[in-house]
Amino acid sequence: xxxxxxxxxxxxxxxxxxxxxxxxxxxxxxxxxxxxxxxxxxxxxxxxxxxxxxxxxxxxxxxxxxxxxxxxxxxxxxxxxxxxxxxxxxxxxxxxxxxxxxxxxxxxxxxxxxxxxxxxxxxxxxxxxxxxxxxxxxxxx
Length: 141
Known about the structure:
Layout: H1 10-26, E1 29-35, E2 40-46, H2 52-61, H3 69-72, H4 83-102, H5 108-115, E3 129-131, E4 138-140
Antiparallel strand pairs: 1-2, 3-4
């Protein structure tokens, strides 16, 4: 007998994700700055990046399910109907984080690591070996 699904339909999963996005939007983190000659504290609301892990915590906090592994596992055919929504959720998280880092809303280095992006550089050093025209000796530079 198959175990019951805690999130009954893909539509319910998508609805929960949208609720999570709104929750994050309506519950920003704050940065405290001290301004003016008297150093008056000012709390500035900051947008929070949305993540798949954050979404998992959100549904766990609602006591719906502790882990979305079955829903996101490509090998479990019982949850195949959820794959398009899981893919969309992951892409929405990626895009929101990438856009936020692109406009310096989020720390670009942290987001790049989270998204698995890396900057590759190559260094090329050319070592010439030849003959000195006057002495006919081999030289290196």
